[in-house]
Amino acid sequence: MEKWVLAIGYDKEKFNEAQRESLKYGILIRMAPDLSAAAAWLAKQNNFLLAVLFSDALDFLPPLKILRSLTKAPILVMRHRYDGAEKVAAIEAGADEYIQWPDTIPEGVASCRALIRRYTELNRQDDEQLNILSRGSIFISVDYHKVFINTQEVVFPRREFDLFYLVASNPGRVFTREQLYEKIWIGDYLPAENSLHSCLRRIRRKLEAAGAPCTIQNTRGVGYCFLQEEP
Q1: Architecture field, domain 132-228
Q2: Helix, strand, or coil here: 166?
Q3: Which alpha helices (H) appear in the chain, and where do they start and end?
Q4: Could you give the CA distance from residue 170 to residue 166 in angstroms, rounded to a whole number?
Q5: What is the pLDDT of residues 151-173, one digit of tens each?
Q6: At what angle do helices 15-23 and 105-118 cross, to 10 degrees?
Q7: pTM summary value
Q8: Ranges of each domain in the chain
Q9: What is the four-CA torsion angle of 109, 111, 113, 114, rounded to 10 degrees?
């Protein structure tokens, strides 16, 4: 079985040396320059045994919380300067370990190996892949019913979440009102005429408040579709 590690924000110049050291133990490294790229990898590859977040950003906790919702694998945070209070905050945000950036690559690989061994031998429950949808700065974790926009969690109750996920999963597709009622209200009952409009209005307000680069557009006489602005 291949052992994959997802390295987020790692120095490209050190990659070859780190990969050579890791390969001694059958560990392969996948590079992701940022959280968006990491989410894309996690959405299509479910065999990562570890995610390593390399960060010296002042506020790395919001990205860490998002990363925790996107993978069941352990997360290791490496910082150039160790801070005890920051370690506690990182663990509470979802990290499994927090260490100071090692002086040598073999030290860093050893820490990774320890977490991989603990995960595979003791704590790993299953290989089920989490269902993740990423749209630029928007991350939707279907399994946990969580939405993150610009690194901040935005709370969507069930109907709003289901409606937003449906249209965001099909950018550009126009859904008729009847289709949305059928898919979101599942035919349990016929909702009031303004139920859909009210739900969409609340979603739009939350997207706007979070600065989301997208909108749910009303196609007059037809229905609604999700549109995302070009970066």
Answers
A1: Orthogonal Bundle (1.10)
A2: helix
A3: 15-23, 35-44, 61-70, 84-93, 105-118, 158-168, 177-184, 193-209
A4: 7
A5: 778 899 999 999 999 999 999 99
A6: 50
A7: 0.68
A8: 3-123, 132-228
A9: 170
Report the first-to-last Cα separation within the chain, whole angstroms.
38
Backbone angles phi, psi at 216, to 5 degrees: -105, 110
Residue 171: how many other CB atoms lie within 10 Å: 12
Most distant pair of Cα atoms in the chain: their distance: 64
CA distance 97 to 112: 10
Q: How far apart are CA 6 and CA 213, in angstroms?
A: 27
Answer whether 208's CB lies under 8 Å from 151's CB.
Answer: no
Cβ atoms within 10 Å, residue 44? 9
Long-range (24+ apart) CB contacts under 8 A made by 101-105 are 101/54, 102/78, 105/14, 105/17, 105/18, 105/21
Give residue-wise pLDDT tens across range 120-146.
876 554 445 567 788 877 888 888 788
* CATH number of the domain located at residue range(s) 3-123 in this protein: 3.40.50.2300
Give the single-character DSSP code of 76. Answer: E
